[in-house]
Amino acid sequence: MTAPLRVRFPAVVFTWIALTFLATPALTEEVQDHASEPQQQTRTPEAEYPPLLPLKASYSASMNKGIALNGTASRRLIKRDDGTWLYRTDVDSFIADIRESLILRWENNRVVPLRYRYKLSGFLIRDREVAIDFEWSKGVATGHHEGDRFSLKLEEGALDPMGYQLQLHQDIRAGKREMVYRVIDEGDYDTDRFAVIDEEILNTDQGRIATVKAEKVRDDNKRQTLMWFAPEQEYLLIRLLQVEPDGSRYEITIDEAEIRR
């Protein structure tokens, strides 16, 4: 029987806007590039690569423009009876609700997405729905983005807006320091780059937590996204900070997590 690792962290005020970045990067600016560009990451030997671990986590967030909206967000990674995994995020707030899920296989140290679904609903905002189906046997990804249908030839290692976040977590756990992903978003491919840039101690109400800090690499540097992962808690995402071009800051912090080893 595996033993769960339970971690509790101090909560901050939630706003769905900040958690939207965690739940669906499709709402933020992405870096476009060509599929032919060589990827900079190196593979970790399979014997040293970490396995997926079932996870339950809850997050809260804050926004610095005087807007404070109470809400909740949860993220789960569950292994299903057929050997596939369910990766799911649920965000509930006064303004909007988000339901996002991915069914995937974990093969050769890679996330292999099968079925991605995203739905945003609320008032004072426009509802959004996204679907991507990965037909690997046919080499095609099909789906729709806000009603516009698309069909794409699948590239090797292609990911969805949720699966690349899980792959990033696993790659950092494996000791990688530079990562490049090809992500299907809005009916086309984006190239997303990340780099581990530092080690940092975070001071929390629960004590000092050792972390590694990563950033999303952008060509224009107008938007900054930083993430902190805790090595002693299986590289759990502890904090995410995004600074917009106008100086607005959105910060996500973890409240509670259970990791089943």
Describe it.
By secondary structure, this protein is mainly beta. Helices cover about 5% and strands about 55% of the residues. It has helices at about 15-25, 165-175; strands spanning about 5-10, 55-65, 70-80, 85-95, 95-105, 110-120, 130-135, 140-145, 150-155, 180-185, 190-205, 205-215, 225-230, 235-245, 250-260. It has a 15-stranded antiparallel β-sheet that branches. Strand 13 (about 225-230) and strand 14 form a beta hairpin. The longest helix has 11 residues, at about 165-175. The chain is globular, with a radius of gyration of 18 Å. The termini are close together. About 35% of the residues are buried. Mean pLDDT is about 80; it is low at about 5-40.
Shape, per Cα inertia axes = globular
Give me the secondary-structure category: mainly beta
Average pLDDT works out at 81
Q: What share of residues is helical? A: under 10%
> Which ranges are low-confidence, i.e. pLDDT below 50, for 5 or more consecutive residues?
5-42
Radius of gyration: 18 Å
Main sheet properties: 15 strands, antiparallel
What is the strand content? over 45%
State the end-to-end CA separation. 9 Å
Number of helices: 2
Helix and strand string, N-terminal first? Answer: EHEEEEEEEEHEEEEEE
